[in-house]
Model the fold of this input.
Amino acid sequence: MDDPLLRCENLVRRYRDRVAVAGVGFDIARGEVYGLLGPNGAGKTTTISMVAGILRPDAGSILVEGLPVTTGAGPAKQLIGLVPQDIALYPDLSAVENLQFFGRLQNLDGSRLQQRIDAVLEVVGLADRAHDRIDDYSGGMKRRANIAVGLLHQPHLLILDEPTVGVDPQSRNQILESIETLGGEGLSVLYTTHYMEEAERLCDRVGIIDAGKIVAEGTRRELVALVGAHDRVHVSVSGDAAALAARCRTIAGVIEVHQTDSRLEIVSDDAGRVLAPVVEAADVEGVAVTGVDVREPDLEAVFLHLTGKALRD
Amino acid sequence: MRRLRIVVAFVSVVLRGVVRDRTALFFMVALPVAIIVIIGATFGGVQRLDVGVVTHDRGVVATALVDTLRSAKGVRVHTYANLESMRRAVRRNAIAAGIDLPPGLDLQTAGSGVIQLPFVTNRATSGSFPARNIVDDALGRVGARIAAARLAVTATGVSFPDALGAAGTVARRSPGVAVATRDVGSGRTTTLSRFSLTAPQNLVLFVFISAAASSAAIVRMRRAGLLRRSLASPVSAGMLTLGVAAGWFAIAVAQSLIIIGVGALVFGVDWGDPLGAAVLVAVYAFVGAGVGLLTGALARDPDRVGAIAPVVGIVLGALGGCMIPLEFFPPTMRAIAHAVPQYWAVTAWQRLVFNGDGLAGIAAPVAVLVVFAAGFLTLATVALRRDVMQA
Done:
């Protein structure tokens, strides 16, 4: 990738004898939402901690906008916003007071700080509860306030570590919409989650990490192709199903067709491309289509294929 | 400038948290003041002394003794009909002590023999010793007049009552012997408030307890990931540690100033040389900050910290002389006490408050406190850095 916003190269981190991250490398482009998926203990949190400048890598390099990320007070940290998995806010203080504190750590002060506080509270939908104590917030509101702190100093890269854990569907949707909006406005996002549908919805690209290494990376479709998974179109018909199956096998893009009584399962690389020809074939054969169900292989299938089904602690 | 802003941000956020925590406020302000009042009022000394007298007749000697007692500053004289009723008053602590003036006292004193007067007191009470002094003083004054009257009776043949009355008149008219006192060195010249004994000890005790107990907040900050999140800002681990330490230093200084202010304004405690007191407060606040930071960096359960820290603080405080004066310690305990910072802080306050020493006089204990503070802060920095900078 030319001129990425974030470039991580060959990151290594050991804890005594255990290697938590063993040569992780990935790039994130400007405005790209990159999902980092992996089972528990795969090295996600360690990788994020290194990218956020909390943890020093034993080897490798991290550059944001070409600036090296260090654990010191270097300028690269001002380009990064971290939204940790925990609600890292002072519970006795209000949202505004929390934002004032973290804003000052980010070199913001005075009217500039106040403007940013107003703006981020608007983004996360907490403007009307700005002066309430965090303790008095619901779980979803705490999550949104947690995100507001990460956005406060207008970072170029936002790191979101499982930001929707334990929130109600409304708050979750609000959070995801906010991230989509921010991504659309050019903010780069490094996103970790255990919810595959979130990654599918938000992420332009996904890296799957296991045992401290990136085992696969790409768009959803690239990952699906990588593991050899295909779309499946299930068609219920009334009429000569065998004749329709035979005709469908001649359609370009169809890999194979399985027929069981009045049901056909059509395997294809791209269900959207073959759906119309299948309907036309049914028309030609005088078969009535009574139902269609398209199943695309999802990230969960890819994830389980790559990381296995064994339980992780 | 930026470092100062970060430190101020941490101090502000820590103090806000304390001010909004009623439990923390209780331990920081209300409890120390209450303890100072209770212990000061109980053991800090006596302001008014109640003394009893059994007067079987109204002779000149008895009258002279009662008048002399009544003229003593801070003494209230209660008269009783018989010795038994006065004993009961002593047992009830209604009076600190009493003296029985038997019938025919004038006649007895006119002779040359020794007269014995029953004196009743309860030595377990704090007023017993001062009451004995007051009565001794009164007997000494009247005794001088009796001696003069006896001499006059022998020399002139006047009656003893007339001679005793004349001796009293002469004593009142004679100019007293002027005794000039001059203090040398930096000795204290003012009378200490009754609370002066306990207020410094309680300051040392409670600043330590508050610093250790409030470190539960640091454990919560660690567990919530607040420190890690702060480290994701353009802030180094060193600045982060400095900021948190500054917050706990501010708590210790604020609590010290509250106790000193209330002690001085409400209870009349003289805290001694201002410069020495300021240095001692600052150094001991660093000790408190170090203890708070170290406890907060090492502990895992904030509730346990809140429960255990006050107990540990009380034990160390007792060992350091915060409850019983160090002078009462046996040699072995006194040697062990050197191992706790409270001992050095109490010693320094004693020198400031009781001896009237200045900064030079407390240099040695302050130097030891500096070593304690440096040790605690260094260990805390290492522990906190290790905790925060791991995934």
About this structure: Chain B has a mean pLDDT of 85.
